[in-house]
């Protein structure tokens, strides 16, 4: 029995014919994942003596500044074009407004400067612009004392200041991830006013209130007070259309690039955003997406590297121009071979 029944006049086996050899498959591949598509998220913690492994993210550590410098050099040598930095304060330096983030002698500035000095322009250095790592209540901004909710406008003012600290310390790209309304416009205005007209903005434009950020919270040492969540400011996973509204607003406010986050659970959103705007589109393959692959691979249930490659390729196929992923280093090694 032929696999494809012969229909008179119909070109049978036309599709399978092009899958026959690796060279044929390479020739007709529509999506090509390369090292150039990868951005590595990196954590660096103040006051650490040695790098600290993150239990729920095998292979990921909280870096010391020296180990961070070593890692960015390694990534640059592998050809990874970008990193996104998450600086973490000492636990005792957290407070209600996340003031340690803005400390001119704090971890934000020291880590960014160390990376910039180490790699120059060989790597695009991105800075996640948010406050949850620095607030003692774990929310992404300051709280309105009367409601207990995050105060949008007061938070945006702090992001605008933080962006200037990050740009002055050498960040090429500021990536606001707090999902406050008006954050992109405020950051663009403050960057320009401080003379950082060349500093770009990658807006976490469509960021969902996802359960997939669990391992990140361990990596970043973030606990939301009272078992709370971010549903009051991040998007509802049930909604697709509002992602486009967020993206269009962010581009109008001056975003140079936009991001969809998480990636795999939102491939429909990635595809729609790709069609709706002409700026580069990023997608964040988040901590939970990475952890699931690692956990299943550790048990021998899946082939981890193969699944990682398939997943990140799928994010690109959906329309992302580049992918933030904890697999960046591992994939770069595979893609180089
Ligand atoms: C907020 C931020 C988060 C992530 C990136 N930036 C956490 C959150 O919104 O709760 C999550 C990334 C991941 O899960 O890999 N600073």
For this entry, give a set of tags:
12 helices, TIM Barrel, globular, alpha/beta, 337 residues, 15% strand, binds ligand PBG
List the helices and strands and how they pair.
Elements: H1 14-17, H2 22-28, E1 38-45, E2 52-53, E3 61-63, H3 65-78, E4 82-88, H4 107-119, E5 124-129, H5 152-168, E6 173-176, H6 183-193, E7 200-207, H7 214-219, H8 241-253, E8 257-261, H9 267-276, E9 281-285, H10 287-298, H11 304-318, E10 322-325, H12 328-336
Parallel strand pairs: 1-3, 1-4, 1-10, 4-5, 5-6, 6-7, 7-8, 8-9, 9-10
Antiparallel strand pairs: 2-3
Residues 128, 130, 132, 140, 177, 213, 216, 230, 286-287 line the site of ligand PBG.
Structure description:
- The chain is an alpha/beta fold.
- It has a single domain, classed as Aldolase class I (TIM Barrel).
- It has twelve helices and ten strands.
- The chain has an eight-stranded parallel β-barrel with strand order 1-4-5-6-7-8-9-10, surrounded by nine helices.
- Helix 9 links the parallel strand 8 and strand 9.
- Helix 3 runs parallel beside helix 4.
- The structure holds ligand PBG.
- The site of ligand PBG has 10 residues, from loops.
């Amino acid at each position: 029995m032929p696999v494809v029944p012969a229909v008179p006049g119909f070109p049978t086996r036309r599709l399978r014919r092009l899958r026959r050899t690796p060279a044929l498959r390479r020739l007709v591949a529509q999506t090509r994942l390369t090292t150039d598509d990868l951005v590595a998220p990196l954590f660096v913690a103040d006051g650490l003596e040695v790098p600290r492994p993150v239990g729920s993210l095998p292979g990921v550590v909280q870096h010391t500044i020296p180990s961070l410098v070593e890692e960015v050099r390694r990534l640059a040598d592998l050809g990874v074009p970008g990193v996104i930095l998450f600086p973490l304060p000492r636990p005792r330096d957290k407070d209600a407004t996340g003031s340690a983030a803005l400390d001119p002698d704090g971890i934000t500035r020291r880590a960014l400067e160390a990376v910039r000095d180490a790699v120059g322009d060989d790597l695009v250095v991105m800075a996640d612009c948010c406050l949850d790592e620095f607030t003692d209540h774990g929310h992404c901004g300051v709280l309105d004392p009367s409601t207990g909710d995050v105060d949008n406008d007061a938070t945006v003012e702090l992001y605008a200041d933080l962006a200037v600290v990050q740009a002055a310390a050498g960040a090429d790209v500021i990536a606001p991830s707090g999902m406050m309304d008006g954050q992109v416009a405020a950051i663009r205005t403050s960057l320009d006013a401080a003379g950082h007209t060349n500093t770009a903005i990658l807006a976490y434009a469509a960021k969902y209130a996802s359960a997939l950020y669990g391992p990140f919270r361990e990596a970043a040492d973030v606990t939301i007070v009272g078992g709370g969540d971010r549903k009051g400011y991040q998007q509802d996973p049930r909604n697709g259309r509002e992602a486009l509204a967020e993206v269009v607003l962010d581009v109008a406010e001056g975003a140079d690039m936009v991001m969809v986050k998480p990636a795999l659970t939102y491939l429909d959103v990635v595809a729609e955003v790709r069609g709706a705007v002409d700026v580069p589109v990023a997608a964040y393959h988040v901590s939970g997406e990475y952890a699931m692959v690692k956990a299943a691979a550790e048990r021998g249930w899946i082939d981890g590297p193969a699944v990682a490659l398939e997943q990140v390729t799928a994010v690109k196929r959906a329309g992302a121009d580049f992918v933030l992923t904890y697999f960046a280093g591992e994939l770069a090694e595979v893609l180089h071979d």
